Amino acid sequence: MQSTQIDQRVSLAVSTVVFALRPHPRTGHDTLWLPLVRRIREPYEGAWALPGGPLESDEDLAASARNTLERTTGLTTNYLEQLYSFGEVDRSPADRVVSIVYWALVRPDEAARAVDGENVEWFVADEVPELAFDHNRIVEYALGRLRAKITYSPIAHAFLNPEFTLAELREVHEAVLRKPLDPANFRRQVLASNTVVPTGTCVTGTSHRPPALYRFDPASTTTRERP
Amino acid sequence: MQSTQIDQRVSLAVSTVVFALRPHPRTGHDTLWLPLVRRIREPYEGAWALPGGPLESDEDLAASARNTLERTTGLTTNYLEQLYSFGEVDRSPADRVVSIVYWALVRPDEAARAVDGENVEWFVADEVPELAFDHNRIVEYALGRLRAKITYSPIAHAFLNPEFTLAELREVHEAVLRKPLDPANFRRQVLASNTVVPTGTCVTGTSHRPPALYRFDPASTTTRERP
Hints:
Strand content of chain A: 25-35%
Number of helices of chain A: 5
Shape of chain A: elongated
Helix content of chain A: 25-40%
Largest sheet of chain A: 7 strands, mixed
CATH superfamily of the largest domain in chain A: Nucleoside Triphosphate Pyrophosphohydrolase
CATH class of the largest domain in chain A: Alpha Beta
Oligomer: homodimer
CATH topology of the largest domain in chain A: Nucleoside Triphosphate Pyrophosphohydrolase
Number of strands of chain A: 9
Structural class of chain A: alpha+beta
Order of helices and strands of chain A: EEEEHEEHEHHHEE
């Protein structure tokens, strides 16, 4: 662990914005939620903040994000990406802290395994309270990035189980973008993008014309988001 | 300035990958160049590295990038954006350093004002020598980001004077992407994107049908690249 700050040095924290889809408490429609952790010390004691902690000297950045996320919320994720580094001089009232922020997308089963302890709570992402530090600004930025990126990059599958129907994939887009999408157009666009492949199986049990299952094709994306 | 590292603490540096277009020394075609700074102390004494330096405790991140860039190379830029933070545990041989890396695009007149001192030299970006630390990897990542981003975001104008012809804009794309583009297609796509507006004037002097001048329309882009 880093020792206490004693001088003008800059200390480094790693935090993570985790998104999962759950029904909205009023509308019942799937919407974005995120877990926040209640601060148990100053500054901002008692306020909600993003899960995170100081970068340990023997940890890589993504490992730090994963470790503090699991330690504080019990969450693990397959989709973790660096979002941005926030370093304004006055973003922390006492010392100078630069936060390297990651964002994660989690599936329902991953979210269900998360701890819901007294100091961890899930919030509707667009309705978070006033947070510690500049964390409201970070959440807003992460939401903007997610909503931009889902329009040009195949990331929606990260909210779903490995096998999904095209209707489920569309519902993820609709929940993230907060608007209905035309099913036929969506289907055509997804199939034309070659980012999903049919598993050759169908949803079992429910219907005499069961919908086909697909999985994400990792080989389809050449976007270089990380080094 | 940060004081000397004495313990297990993590220190923070800010570096910048600066791209400008100049003719390639062999082919004569415009190509990407970047300035490097020769290290005058260990580790990697004598090796070339990206311009940068430790984050000062009273400086914002982008201000640090601008200040070290100007101090080491004399360069100023209108296009400066955060690229990525590199923080592998073993990326520096002695201490633990996390580098927050910015990238900048500069115009010919900005590049011409740069210092070409004994410890600063410009290199063809795809032909840099073995650099200090993980800076080869950072340059490669920045090149990939630039080449990806120029295909979906109006950034090419940052290499040009405020008023430019569509042929000049196409030549920037060709130089960055290292391939010829069809002039009629390019013209159609750029005009359809509504990212440039005609200034109402033409190039003067040279031709009886002088090409029209355009400028970038900042209001056209809604891409949220920074908070």
